[in-house]
Sequence to fold (241 residues):
Amino acid sequence: MNLKSLEEYWEFGFPNVEGWVDTRLAVCLRLIDNVQRAAGIVGGIGEIGVYHGKMLLALAHLASAGDKVTAIDVFEDQARNIDGAGVGSLGRLQENIRLYGPSASLDYSFIKADSIALTSHEREQLATRGPFRFFSVDGCHTAEHTCTDLLTAQDCLTPGGIVILDDFYQPHWPGVTEAVSLLYSRYVPRIKPFLYCFHKLFFVGYGWQAHFVDQCWQHLAPRSDAKLIEMYGSRVVSCYP
Ligand SMILES: C[S@@+](CC[C@H](N)C(=O)[O-])C[C@H]1O[C@@H](n2cnc3c(N)ncnc32)[C@H](O)[C@@H]1O
Fold:
C-alpha cells in the first residue's frame, strides 16, 4: 500500500488490522515521537504480545529507514497463551506488515517465545535487537507475566526510550494494574510513568521523566480530558476517558 507516515497508516491501514488500540492514541504517539526526535533519541521498536500487529505497525511507522523492529509472541504456540487474550499469528502479522507497513525499509525480527520464560538464548537475541526507543508490553495479562515483561522492557531501553503498557486501569484485566503495583513494591525499577491515556501507561527512565511529563503537559493541558495527577510518586499527565 506504500504508507508513508503514522497518519497515513491511521487512515488507510489501522482500520483493516484486527487488534486492540484506541483510535485516539495516534496524537500521543506523534507527540512522544516529536519529543524523542527533538532530544536526538534513537533506537529500535519492540513489542511483547503482537497479535496481528496493530500497535507494532503504528510504532514501525515512527521508525527511520534501517531501524530494527522486533516482535515477541508465542504466535502459533498457543498452549503457552494462558489468558487467551488474542490468538497470535505470525502469518497474519507478516501479511499485515506487507500490506500496511511503512514504505521505508526496516529490519524486522520475529521471536517466538513465552515472555515469562525467556531462555538465555532468547534474551541474547533480544539484546542484539536493542537498545529500544519504543517497547510495547501487551502479552499475557496476569500480574506475574506483566511485571516480568515490564522488567524485560526496562532492561533493553535506550536512555529516553519509552515503555508502553497496555490495559492499565482496564477493568477486564486487573492483573495489569496489579503488575505495576508489584513493580514498585517488590522491585526498584529504573522507569517511572509520565503519561496515561486510553488504557495505555507510558514510562521512561528516571533521568528523562521530568522532561517528558513537562513536554506532554505543555501540549495536552488545553484538552478538556487532560489532568496532571500523581501516581507512584511521579507527576503523570492523564487523559480520560
Ligand atoms: C491482546 S493481544 C496483543 C494485541 C496487540 N498488541 C495489538 O496491537 O492488537 C495478546 C498477544 O499476546 C500473546 N501472548 C499471550 N501470552 C504470551 C506469552 N506468555 N508470551 C508471549 N506472548 C504472549 C498472544 O499470542 C497475543 O498475540
Summary: The pocket of S-adenosylmethionine is lined by residues 19-21, 48-51, 54-55, 72-74, 80-81, 85-86, 88, 114-116, 138-140, 145 (CB under 6 Å). Residues 206-220 form the longest helix (15 residues). The chain has a mean pLDDT of 97.
